[in-house]
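S., here's the first fold you wanted:
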Amino acid sequence: MRQFSALIVALAFALTAAMPTPAAAQSPTEAAAEAARALEAASERMDQAKSAADRVKALTETVRAYEAGLQAMRDGLRRVARRDTQLTTQLKAREDEVADLLGIITTIETSTPPVLMLHPSGPLGAARSAMMLAEVTPGLQTRADALRNDLQEVRDLRLLQQSAAQRLEEGLQGVQAARAALSTAIADRQDLPKRFTDDPVQTAILISSTETLTGFADGLALIAEANGVETSSADISDQRGDVPLPVEGLLLRRYGERDAAGVVRSGILVATRPRALVVSPTAATIRYLGPLLDLGRVAILEPQPDTLFILSGLAEVFGETGQVIPEGTPIGLMGGESAQSGAILSLSGEGGGTGRTETLYIEVRMENSPVDPETWFRTGQGG
């Protein structure tokens, strides 16, 4: 873990020198250093973890730090590849200029002093030529130094890419191991309070008898009422508009927009990377975890009475129905296959969020009526 985080920082410093970023944006060095610090802190927490709750929290931080670190490396390596291509193209385009420059320098260096002193116009012409040569030489030296620096930068960038590939593979293996350990730790955790106990028979009947999300949400409320579920006193109204997204991603489709099939959904769609960690954005009660209709695996959270956060499209879900979980608790993982190091190092398909191949659907229901999730969640995109 420490070797991986050290390489993230080294890569970022190389990038800062090669390709400065706008002052308004977080620099590659800052992003990578932050990810490296998070990895170190998570590693220390893992060493100190004693209870199941501590282990879950430390592993959650580890997975998120690995994800941030891999993102920093992904961006960094692609910047390195772009810089390498840019310099190589420039050098190739200047082949004739470089050949002329080398020819002039070679001639000056190999000519003997008597030859350099001779001039057809005599001593005066020789003096003038010497003055001109004295003026030209610094310029030639500057051009030669610039060429040497470009060639050295290309060599350094390629060495960086070679060493990064191995560390990147280690990082990918590390995050996979952390995810597996997190799943085990959550399964072993028994210290979370419960507001009610799930009735699998009633839930199975409800799933088989409903055809819409609205019907299912209605049925959940009836089951809870029939089982005498204690009423929650939680109130997160003051967080409206500032609740973080449950997964790191980009807003793909807004509330009420038609999808490719022309269907209007009552939620938002967030594009994520494969195997991204999904967490509870607030303290909440888990109302349902599992497959539902055509939505894939679903997590339904109740952050306050008569308000539901519905998250669908997960490949794995963590926890148990009825548990009261704190903010930031892992509730699942997105699907897909984690990118291999070769794909991350490749420049093909870069930009535009093309690495975010998975989608998380988020719906918010208040008194069982859908509302625009962007009135609750901080999506980072204006209207």
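And the second, which I think is the more interesting of the pair:
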Amino acid sequence: MISVLYNLAWWIALPMVLARLWWRGRKEPGYRRHVWERLGWYAPATGLTRIWIHAVSVGETRAVAPLIEALLAAYPTHSIILTHMTPTGRSAGQSLFAHQPRVQQAYLPYDTAYMVGRFIRHFSPRLCLLIETEVWPSLIDQCSKRSLPVLLMNARLSERSLKKAHRLAWLMRPAAAQLTCVAAQTQEDAARLHAFGAPRVEVTGSIKFDVTPPPAMCQLGADLRRQIGSRPVILCASTRDGEEALILDALDGLGLAEALLLIVPRHPQRFAEVERLIAGRGLSLQRRSELGTAALAQKTAVLLGDSMGEMFAYYAACDLAFIGGSLLPLGGQNLIEACALGKPVLIGPHTFNFASVTEDAISAGAAQRVSDGADLMRKAQTLLHNPPLRTAMAEKALAFAQQHRGATARSMNLLRAYL
């Protein structure tokens, strides 16, 4: 009965879902492309045995890259069907796997039995891997009915997300119980997932620690740094709505006139909005997309990172990095990439989506917690004016990233039983 009601709700909501998709396409045209895939209709598939991996957006797509590379190397007769929900996730996948003819991309169909069933019949995957927090009741149910193993990989579940899941326990608990196996990032994640009903949970660590900074991105970052010159660079990475205003309000009067503020909003549809916000404060700015190969103007106070897929380059070009989504109660973002490039990390008070790794990084001396925008700028000022302290923190960040590697190998050991 629950499955019937859930599917009926999807069909009733479908016109509104499609209308919203079209509406979002005003700012992100990618939402208006490949719409048929979201309804379960796809281009022809290759004849190889397929592994289905669902990575909803950019973060999950970048995180799963080491596992995809390991699977392709270990199983040369298999291909990957990589599904997403967002155009930015699909674009990230195209950038990462353009050199891999055995990786095919598509949008995940909406979670109705009919559409998911069409997807499974079309691609005939041997295994389904969901990444991090993606639990779709109809998807899991359709896989279970076809004896198709479903594993939740690199899984995380915060205390806050667990409370939300309990409010939908009538729907989510049966789905969790049908998962074949869960590979959790931490012991805390594992305990919460098991308590919610996942029958088998293993702790494999975070695959994000195994992401290797691409040499091309490191070179791009070095080139960008040469364009900037000798000025210290404060990177504000993956900022969310409302955070840029807090950062800009705190910028004045802190003795950071010589520093360059590099702001990279998390969502591309906000680039123009953030540009207006900066200009409205009378600050001289340039866009990364308009910089080309020219040197950055000395008078420029803010560089707006309005490009996709270049976050590693931004990290490579900076002296220290603030990780967005954490000044406001949004849960924070992944700080591992910054640590992997040996950058001191500043992070706000709201990191419930990445609680364990954030606390571990702070304990290791790789990151510092800031309370608000003013505290962020004060701590940035301290680090920029104290090179030995900044160097020591950078070394601890790199060591922290390196000592937690190995989740990909542990995940592969787990997957061999199903391949």
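Why I say that: The chain has two domains: 2-206+406-418, 215-403. Residues 2-24 form the longest helix (23 residues).

Talk tomorrow,
H.
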